[in-house]
Amino acid sequence: MIFKKLFSISLPLQVIIAVIVGVLTGLLIGDKAVIFEPIGRIYTMLMETVVFPYIMSTLLVSLGDLSPSLSIKLLKKIWVYFLLLLLTYGTLIILAQAIPLGTTLSTYEQTNAPQQSGILDFLLPENLFYDLTNNYIPAVVIFCILFGFILQLIPNKSTLFSVLETISDTCLLFWNRLVKFAPIATFALLAYISGTIKFNQLYDLSIFLILFLIGILLLIFWIIPITISSFTNIRYKEILPELRDALIISAITTLSVVALPYIQKTTEKFIAHKKYEVDTKENKDIIKTILLINYPLAQLGNFFVYLFILFASLYFNSPINNLQYIFLPVVSYLSSIGSPSSSINSVAFLANWVSLPIDTVNLYMSLLPLIRYGQVLLSVMGFAFISIIGTFVFFGYARINYKKIAGHFIVAYALLFMLTFALKSVFPNPGEKNYTRLNSFSLSRTLVANTQATIMPSFDEKNISSKESIEDALFRIQRTGVLRVGFNADMRPFAFYNKQNQLVGYDIAYAYALAKALNSRLEFIPFTWQYLVRDLTANKFDIAMSAIYATEQRLTSSMFTRPYFHSPVSLIVPKDKQNQFQTADQIKNMEKLRIGVFNDPVLIPLIQKNFPNARIVILPNISGNAPAQAFEQNLIDAILWSQAQTQVWVLAHPDYVSVVPSGVPAPFLIAYMVQRNSPQLLNFLNYWLTLKKNDGFQKKMYNQWILIRPSTDHQPRWSIWRSISNRHGSNQ
Predict the structure, then answer these.
(1) 605 CB contacts (<8 Å, ≥6 apart)?
(2) In a designed cystine with 705, which of 241, 258, 506, 552 is the match (CB 3.0 to 4.6 A)?
């Protein structure tokens, strides 16, 4: 009886109930809500099965049935679409100013992201079946447009059109039947999202989520409807109610394409209200063609990947160079054309283009459950904009109220500007936040558990005599049960002391993992760079692990593992002077240039070879405040180091930037260093490093120490049920 009454109420009300119950269920059972995820995914997949048949059949019929003259007339109204793009990207570019982002002149391209398909693969229909397989909707639509134009010249096509119309009608009927199950799918999706999302993750993503919400609300409820009203004399308060069904059906299904028939009916209704005649089949085909051609082009929700890529640059501490920053709106637009799911391909392509880590796509995927509804609703409003204004303009019914539209735009964008710059002052400085976070990191308890470690005192390296050991270091470690690791604590983020005065870092974590693999104790032995080779040769330690550069000179007296990290040559320079350090030739031609560096046998010769006119200034260290003091005292113009270290240093010094000029030497190869008489240890290390890469340890350490992301918390997420259970257990 209850279920009968429940299913007798309207579908929108059923969905609202499903949303509330789904969220409450997720909060109640927490991580256990993962069992609902397949239900929502299956529903979405079923809804997507007829997207391509619907688009292709409807577009071919609508466009193929028009005359060539009408098609050309339709093409001339493309300025309506460009107006929509201007409004959308204008909003996004203003919002982007709130992201406390620093650009760089870096031209070095990382190799940690896989090559993605190029933009032309998304846009041009080279192979229709390949495009269908890979979900390249823009290429499929362009194929249909070209095919439709040619189809206009073919006589006796009524049989083909009859088949295509049947396919289109079948797709609509399929959606209408499937949408009845939307409340179940909505419950499953919301239960999964609210039950599994980590609250600390929301905090880390808050900058993007706040800007996303502002942009979505502004465009959906103000900019787009007021523009439609100003072009058509339709009252603002009529627009959203008339589009209600289109918005609800797309929100229920998370598919924007299912809103197209509803938008077409709304467009016809608005024209009928104005007592304009569009009852002929040709005129209805024009409305349908306007809609379908712009389906892949007006996916406004996808364009928010522009904002996401800028946020990801901040999130991963990976600056975008100036040229990429300038062209990002254009490239993000071209790569975002398609369906809502095309935004995933767009993020992968853009992340590769601007050299962001592979995890950029995973970060976006984790956000999708939160932002997909907003993206879909905005895309539906984009379709409505094109359909309604485009139709009014095409038939000559548009009446632009310039005073109204100018007044609203001035007020809306003035408020957006003020809000954006207010948020920029509120959002925390990302550099200082990340630097503080890095200095608070400790090695995980599981990593250091049951491993005894001792930090040995410094020794007089000047008076060490060379006495190379005959025994392979691997055998000595196994015999004594002690692994001796040479380290230099000025190599943040690879080896340094955190604010608790603990020795931590990427390489220190690897040292503990190596000790566990060898079942040995740890002895950390400090070294200075000018005596590194001599200390190793004198058998003071078995392995050196502190971001050590593999060089030809060092290879003559020691051995290196396979490189585990690549980092280009980089300069620290004041922000206001970064344009002077864009290329190696610029730097070579500078007069009285002073480059700061610590006393390192690799960096000093590198400066002498590549910038012979520069004067070298030796600094006591580069990891602390000594470089900033040297800049303030006008002792140096730049500091040379590897990018992995310069990017960390500038986090704590926002007046400076890390620059990788074009034309600099090849990137540093960073590896672990062992004695020449220890081939067995070297062989063991190379295989062991491969194992650490395959078991996920390398990725975990890279995320924590290089990307400065907190280590993953594997504890179950809070839920009402778990909280009650724990409280009940503690009272017994």
Answers:
(1) none
(2) 506
Instruction: Name the nearest CA neighbour of 196 among 373, 42, 33.
Output: 33
> Which conformational region is residue 663 in: left (phi greater than 0), alpha (psi within -120 to 50 degrees), or beta?
left
Check if 11-427 and 439-565+675-706 are the same fold: no
Q: Is the omega angle on the peptide bond into residue 493 within 30 degrees of 0, that is, cis?
A: yes
CATH architecture of 11-427: Orthogonal Bundle (1.10)
Residue spans per domain, the chain: 11-427, 439-565+675-706, 569-666
Q: What is the average pLDDT score of the chain? A: 83
Per-residue pLDDT reduced to its tens digit, 23-48: 888 888 888 888 888 887 788 778 77
Give how far the C-alpha of residue 475 lies from the chain's centroid of Cα atoms, to the nearest Å: 46
Burial of 297 (0-12, 13-18, 19+ CB in 10 A): buried
Which residue type occupies 403? K
> Is residue 322 within 8 Å of 410, Cβ to Cβ?
no
Contacts of residue 264, defined as CB under 8 A and 6 or more positions apart, other chains included, come to 284, 287, 288, 291, 387
Q: Distance of CA 27 to CAs 30, 40, 185, 190, 198, Å?
A: 5, 18, 17, 10, 11
Residue-wise pLDDT for 291-350, tens only, equals 777 777 788 999 999 999 999 888 776 778 778 888 899 888 877 876 666 787 788 888
For 215-265, write each residue's pLDDT tens digit: 999 999 999 999 999 998 889 999 999 998 889 888 877 778 788 888 988
**Distances from the Cα of 599 to the Cα of 125, 604, 622, 623, angstroms:** 58, 7, 10, 13
Does the domain at residues 439-565+675-706 carry the CATH identifier 3.40.190.10? yes
**Structural element, H or E, at residue 145:** helix 137-151
The pTM of this model reads 0.73
Write the CATH number of the domain with boundaries 569-666. 3.40.190.10
